[in-house]
């Protein structure tokens, strides 16, 4: 689960970059076929998806890392939080 806290005024652009990240991760076959869930809470986005392998974030391709740089420019300082979660029910 990833939480993005957008800088004021960058909410729409951040949403576009988050969508680009998802499309790129799918194209590069880095994520499972499980659906991605995306939520908005004010200026915050919350995204839940599953990498195919837990090692991918530590060894992400350059194309993904470049998108992460774009994301970091659009969020508050320390504005991306990542938490490994496990689905336990409906």
Tertiary shape = globular
User: What is the CA-atom radius of gyration, in angstroms?
Assistant: 13 Å
Q: Averaged pLDDT, please?
A: 95
Helix-and-strand structural type = alpha+beta
- Order of secondary-structure elements: EHEEHE
Strand segment count: 4
Q: What's the structural domain tally? A: 1
Tell me the major beta sheet: 4 strands, antiparallel
Could you characterize the architecture of this molecule?
The chain is α+β, with helices and mostly antiparallel strands and 90 residues long. It has one domain (2-82): Dimeric alpha+beta barrel (Alpha-Beta Plaits). Helix content is 33%, strand content 26%. The protein has two helices and four strands, in the order βαββαβ. The chain has helices spanning 11-27, 62-74, and strands at 2-6, 37-41, 44-48, 75-82. It has a four-stranded antiparallel beta sheet. Helix 1 (11-27) packs antiparallel against helix 2 (62-74). The longest helix is centred in the N-terminal third of the chain and has 17 residues, at 11-27. The radius of gyration is 13 Å and the shape is globular. The two termini are 17 Å apart. The relative contact order is 0.29. The mean pLDDT is 95.
